[in-house]
Design goal:
381 residues; alpha+beta; four-stranded mixed sheet; two-stranded antiparallel sheet; 12 helices
Length: 381
């Protein structure tokens, strides 16, 4: 008797719990029935389709194939939250709505084959095929110009179709610089670590502008290279000075005369040693190198120092062997040379053609410089 009493009490408790659960489900169903989804005719339509599908599955004619991906909870979630508002997130109401009329079985080429083509997808199709013409990898300026022209044309078409005034395109609608619901984040106003903040922070703030590593400029690199070349040249010159004088050619210099070159031998190069007597070949070579560097070879004729010495101090009979028949002095603005005086001193000779003036310049600043220039001018006439 005691055992039967316990079984009855347990059965009564289960009935009460089941009744309580049924009551909660009924209250939820009543609440959902008064919502937008509950009142939607699409909810009922899809629920009928679902019940019909379940009946077909349970029928004897159904082929029972085990579905490993069956998840009834997904169907419940779709029916409860999404299928009631199916027209809002699908393309069901796009285009001609007469195609949904009962008894309509006519289908043409313009009939939509699916109901999931929403406005965004349609717009991207227009952009791809109609506006950009399937072109890819456009530059930003070209993309913006194409989109602007298309959108402006669509606005004008809309205005003309609805008989709206055209000046609304030029109307500047006033709007606040920032909407009321746009709350600016205050942390963005903090200064970076590059600025001067009043309070120090234990966190690292990246600077506004990142410093770039300093790279050596091209001029510095070029100057460094030139300095290295000069150092190497000075080292080679010092090494040649230490050798015994020879007749070996150590340098070949360009000449003003075409087809001719200036040769500098080792014994002549050694005259550049400190406290040594300079030879005429070395001085003439320096003249030609400097004239080529400063590009004055076409304006100034460099006269050979032997010829200049014969003209100023030599015998008239020697001029025939030192004449320059191939040189047209009218093509030059000046003549530059140097002469050896008393076999122990070099003087600069400069002839200016435009003023017909002769200068015999003494680097030691002699008081006879004017007389020497007048004597040189008489010898050159």
């Amino acid at each position: 008797m005691y055992l039967d009493k316990c079984i009855l009490q347990t059965r009564d408790l289960k009935l009460e719990e089941s009744g309580h659960v049924m009551g909660e489900e009924e209250s939820k169903m009543e609440t959902n029935a008064h919502s937008i989804i509950g009142k939607s005719p699409f909810t009922q339509a899809f629920q009928v389709r679902r019940d019909q599908a379940e009946c077909d599955i349970l029928s004897d004619d159904a082929v029972h194939v085990k579905n490993h991906y069956l998840c009834p909870g997904v169907i419940d979630a779709l029916l409860k939250n999404y299928m009631g508002i199916f027209p809002l997130w699908s393309g069901l109401l796009l285009g001609d709505l007469s195609r949904h009329r009962k008894g309509t079985s006519k289908k043409d080429g313009s009939h939509k084959t699916r109901d999931t083509n929403c406005h965004v997808e349609l717009w991207f199709g227009l952009v791809k095929h109609s506006i950009l013409l399937k072109k890819k990898y456009l530059r930003p300026a070209e993309f913006v110009s194409k989109m602007y022209a298309s959108i402006q044309g669509r606005y004008i078409e809309h205005i003309e179709q609805h008989n709206l005034p055209m000046h609304i395109l030029d109307k500047n609608f006033g709007h606040p610089s920032r909407p009321d619901d746009d709350h600016e984040e205050q942390w963005n106003k903090r200064e970076s670590s590059a600025g001067h903040t009043k309070s120090k922070s234990k966190y690292f703030n990246s600077p506004k502008t990142l410093p770039n590593p300093k790279s050596p400029s091209a001029t510095k690199v070029k100057k460094r290279k030139v300095d290295q070349q000069e150092k190497d040249a000075q080292g080679n010159l010092t090494w040649l000075w230490k050798k015994k004088d020879t007749e070996v050619v150590v340098a070949v210099l360009p000449s003003q005369m075409k087809g001719r070159i200036l040769l500098i031998r080792h014994c002549e190069l050694c005259s550049l040693r400190p406290h040594q007597w300079l030879t005429g070949e070395v001085i003439e070579g320096v003249f030609h190198v400097a004239a080529d560097k400063f590009a004055v070879l076409n304006k100034m004729y460099l006269l050979n120092h032997y010829t200049a010495g014969v003209i100023l101090f030599g015998d008239r009979t020697q001029l025939t062997s030192h004449s320059l028949p191939k040189v047209n002095f009218d093509n030059y603005e000046a003549v530059l040379s140097f002469v050896l005086v008393n076999n122990n001193h070099w003087k600069l000779l400069y002839i200016h053609a435009k003023t017909s003036t002769v200068f015999l310049v003494d680097p030691a600043q002699s008081i006879k410089e004017l007389d020497d220039s007048e004597h040189a001018a008489k010898r050159i006439q």
